[in-house]
Amino acid sequence: MVYNNITTDGLEFLDREDLLKIVKNMVNGGIAISFNGKRTAEEIYKKVRPRVTRVDRKLCVGNEEEQSKNLIIEGENLQAMVTLYKYREQVDLIVTDPPYNTGGQHFRYNDKWDTDPNDPDLGTIVAEDDGSKHTKWMKAMMPRLQMMWKMLKPNGVIAICIDDNELFHLGMMMDEVFGEENRIGIINWQKSYSPKNDTTHVSTATEYVLVYAKDRTLAKTGLLPRDASTNSKYKNPDNDPEGLWRNSDSTAARVTEKDRYAIQSPFTGALHYPGSRSWTNPKKSMKRWLEDWGLKYEEKKLNDNRPNALIIKGAPIPYISKEQSLDNNPVVEDESVYNSELIKKSRELAENIRDNNVWPTLYFTKDGVGRPAIKRHLKSVKRGKVPLTFWADEEYEVPFILGAQSWAHQESGHSQSGINELDEILGKGHNFQTVKPLKLIKKIIQLWCPPKGLVLDPYAGSGTTGHAVLELNKEAETERRFILIEQGNSEKGDKYARSITAERLRRVISGERPNENGYLEKTTEPIKSGFEFRVLMKKIDAQTVLTMKKDELIDVVITSHWENERRASSNLIRIDDENYKYLVGRNDVNEGYFIIWNGLDQVGELNLETYETVVNEAKRAGLNTPYHVYARYEVLQTKSVRFYKIPDKILTHLGLNENTDPFNESEVSN
């Protein structure tokens, strides 16, 4: 048997995750995408080594605590995600915009990645006429999608922007990696104001966002903020003390025979039926609301083959023909009933309430002569709106799972809007031509990232995702954080991570914008936030750790440390103070972190003498116990210290085990 290029003879070499994937697809009868080199692409991420990350202080923004919240990494994104081991299963939302594989400058591929995914080179630009361009794109995306899956929390969501060049290939890969059953929706958003006249067939004015959950049963789709146009539909013509309200359909699409009876209008005496539908509310509620118009109602059997109707007590009944009793005619009127004395009295009472009092919950439209409707008060609906096809105005009790959605430009912005936003912050000449609009990314974040969630963008580009997080935090007083990865390579002149991604976010935080002469001025309100800027360096192993200089090792400890019991909040705040010998940082509950040094760049041991120094420094800094101490050896044990052996614990925090790691080969680090 051959399945996905794997023979049964090789099954014993597959790990548990691979075997489960094969069995799952076989049981479900799933369809798998196939391309040359797929098996290699599926294994690449397992061979990528984590790397040393070096903090570039000149490019960091904010104080130490603000820097600890957000992160920009300059480097290859697969290597960066492998290095971010502490964040595995800690990310709430991945929103990203990978290269679209349209030729030009958009997509690079390094052929060396097939055999050595640790190669740092960006590769060459894949030309539009390259016969293997789709295969190269899929080979690049597959391991990155697998790593994105690993980064998400169990209830996490991923939203990937794409155009029609790779839409179907990406969709099939997403079905394989995340599971077709976890697809939340395919969003179709309007990217341009007007169609282009550069095609002989159809003009493409839309792009797509593929939204998948790691586990759709655990994921949640949030509500969008209610805007002025939504709230403008709520009025208060009767001075209802409950506040603004709007009419809501009194019928439901579900067909329940017991709720398909007639009700008599207190204004006209006509019989109103729910048509082919059913009344939404219970019969006893409908009776109470009808009686609020002035007269008593009773249940009465009519010649309509329906359940008992709600009729004004003692009132005449409109004639119901045989045809009317069989069809779904919603109204049966009768002039003689309209002119009867009891209906005249009922109409007088109802009109008095209509003109001088608060209307009952069940009211009749068109000043009483129209169909019945239900008052829905603004204060009783959710303080937000669910994302609907074409952003329809209907209110729903709970968000529903999105299917294929279409977002008009008023809801999601235009591509040109994204470029204009970048121009406004950086000035013209940045050479970015495919910038996603802030409105689109902000909307995705609002829907699928909780107020204190973590957002990851492995293809950060111009930094729109980080910008969106910062603006949302300011507007809604949320506390979302971001990690952005951009493979800018300053040695090759590709400085996007520095000159565009980081600089854009620095100006968003500072409020600086270029004036007409190109000089920076503070023209907008600053945002109290910051970020740390790190650069991927050489591959890491035990020897690398043991030969690090002091600053390098501090960076590794600060950036890699995590604790099982509180992994999501394990970000350390660096302490740079030459008055401390061992103290290097603290966590969010004010516990200190120390590295024992024997000389400037040699790791020492925890003994009685070094422990006393740790205690003294902790007291001076006002830190709590336990004291977290990194050292080469431990010859003193105490309940007030949590000891971490160097290099073992550092390697573990990076997902490595030097005793069992099959990639602990003796090679020269790149």
If you had to describe this structure to a student in words, what would you say it looks like?
- A ten-stranded mixed sheet has the order 3-26-4-23-22-5-8-10-9-21, sandwiched between helices. Strands 27-28-29-31-33 form a five-stranded mixed sheet.
- The model is unreliable at 1-10, 386-403 and 660-670 (pLDDT under 50).
- Helices cover 29% and strands 21% of the residues.
- With 670 residues, it is an alpha/beta fold.
- 40% of the residues are buried.
- A hairpin with a 5-residue loop joins strand 24 (512-514) and strand 25.
- It has 20 helices and 33 strands.
- The longest helix is centred in the first third of the chain and has 19 residues, at 133-151.
Instruction: Report the radius of gyration as a whole number of Å.
Output: 32 Å
Distance between the termini: 40 Å
Portion in helices? 25-40%
- Average pLDDT reading: 82
Share of residues in strands: 15-25%
The number of helical segments is 20
**General form:** elongated
List low-pLDDT spans.
1-10, 386-403, 660-670
Helix-strand makeup class: alpha/beta
The largest sheet has its strands arranged as 3-26-4-23-22-5-8-10-9-21
DSSP E strands, number: 33
Q: How would a textbook summarize the main sheet?
A: 10 strands, mixed
